Amino acid sequence: MVQAHEQPQHALVHRREVKVAEEPKFRIGRQIRAREVLVIDETGKNIGLLPLERALGLAEERGLSLLEVGASPVAPVTRLVDYGKYRYELSRQEKRAKAHQKEIEVKEIRLSYKMAEHDRMVRISRAGEFLAKGNKIKIEMRLRGREQMFSAEAVQDVLEFRRDLSMPTIIEQEPKKFGNRIIAVLAPDAKAHAKQQAAESGKQNLQVNSKESV
Predict the structure, then answer these.
(1) 3-class SS at 122?
(2) What does residue 123 show for φ and ψ, rounded to 5 degrees?
(3) Band of the pLDDT at 190, cuts 50, 70, 90?
(4) Predicted confidence (pLDDT) at residue 136 exceeds the cutoff of 50
């Protein structure tokens, strides 16, 4: 008689997945883990370091909630707040920030290999306006017929167009040939533009001071 082999006990144990609870975005009330907290009251007054239980009692006495709002080397920083109003204001601020977020568009600037200087300057001006509004620009130069033999020169023309822009830019797509077109994508360089404006402002102030001292 053949005896069935017994399976080891550990093989019969079903492992259960343990889900780790996500850390709350901010701790409130009993979620605060520290023994002592720095407390700021509802008027903004710094009450100081209190045992957590005393801080919770103070919040309850005033009909408010104790909210952890930051950290410090001493203890977590907490604030006495009307939690309902706090969440409402937070929601309003988030909606206001989303409403002010600007959708970036990609504007197209079309060039030709042999373009009159006046037309070129018009496109430089238009591209500058788009970049100043925070938009990206897609430069497209179409090469016709035998002009395609001069694609390397056309790439240099596109780079020269970029250098002539008043607004500093970042090249997001280097000028490349796609079929009979040279295409490049530029984005405004906000940091370089801010430095440029600061430098120009400094020069203007220097000129004013020089005139006043004469």
Answers:
(1) helix
(2) -70, -35
(3) confident
(4) yes
| Rg value, the chain, Cα | 32
Q: What is the pLDDT of residue 101?
A: 58
Q: Quick one: 25 exposed, middle or buried, by C-beta within 10 A (0-12, 13-18, 19+)?
A: exposed
Say yes or no to pLDDT of 12 above 50: no
The residue to which tokens 């400094």 are assigned: 202
What is each CA distance from 45 to 42, 78, 79, 113, in whole angstroms? 7, 12, 10, 68
Could you please report the per-residue DSSP string of 33-94? --SEEEEE-TTS-EEEEEEHHHHHHHHHHTT-EEEEEE--SSS-EEEEE-HHHHHHHHHHHH
Convert the pLDDT of each residue in 60-90 to its tens digit: 998 999 988 888 888 889 989 888 888 888 8
Residue 31 tokens, joined: 């979620």
Contact status, residue 70 vs residue 81, Cβ threshold 8 Å: no
Separation of alpha carbons 60 and 41, rounded Å: 12
Q: Which residues contact 123 (CB under 8 A, 6 or more apart)?
A: 109, 110, 111, 161
